[in-house]
Amino acid sequence: LVGGASAFVSAWLLGPRLGRWELSDSPPMGSPTNAVIGLYMLWWGWLAFNAGSTFGVSGNKWRLSAKACVTTAMASFSGGWVAIAQSYVMFDKKQDVLTIVNGILGGLVAVTAGCAVVNVYSSLFIGAVGSFLANITPFLLEWLRVDDAV
After folding, report:
1. Residues 6+ positions from 46 with CB-CB distance below 8 Å
2. How many CA atoms lie within 13 A of 1 on its CB side?
3. pTM of the entire structure?
4. SS3 of residue 51 by DSSP
């Protein structure tokens, strides 16, 4: 929460890029293929990071590591499903690659802090909420006229 709030304030204080609000819509996506490839690389890295954050697999720590992997995967899956539904509703029954990628990443980000201690059903809920928030935030930032270059 602190990182997100400080990033928002920083983007607000820095102001928009030159010509950002002269466009009628968001800038076009560069390459959907590269976005999906990047998502898969991040996805595997996230699984390794969350499993490794349990400080090993010796003794009974392997159980925490396995639980972290399962909850991470389940949160990303529910984030993807919510993003598919959001894309279907927001884009007139069409799928938008960026919405789905952001939804999966939103689910991964949301579950990271508690991946080893939440149960599977909670991780599904956490991933769904994270995905929903990740996909409505760009519209909120545009409405507030805050330019998030990332």
Report:
1. 72, 76, 108, 112
2. 0
3. 0.88
4. helix
Amino acid at 7: A
Other beta carbons less than 10 A from residue 100's beta carbon:
24
Closest CA relative to residue 80, chosen from 59, 60, 107: 107
Q: How far apart are CA 127 and CA 17, in angstroms?
A: 32
DSSP SS3 for 23? coil
Tell me the per-residue pLDDT of 69-117, one tens digit each, with 9 for 90 and over: 999 999 999 999 999 999 999 999 999 999 999 999 999 999 999 999 9
Whole-Å CA distances, 36 to 33, 41, 83: 5, 9, 14
Cβ(115)–Cβ(123) under 8 Å? yes
DSSP 31: -
The whole-angstrom separation of Cα 70 and Cα 79 is 14
Confirm if 98 and 33 have CB atoms less than 8 A apart.
no
CB atoms within 10 A of CB 62: 13
Alpha-carbon distance 47 to 39, whole Å? 12
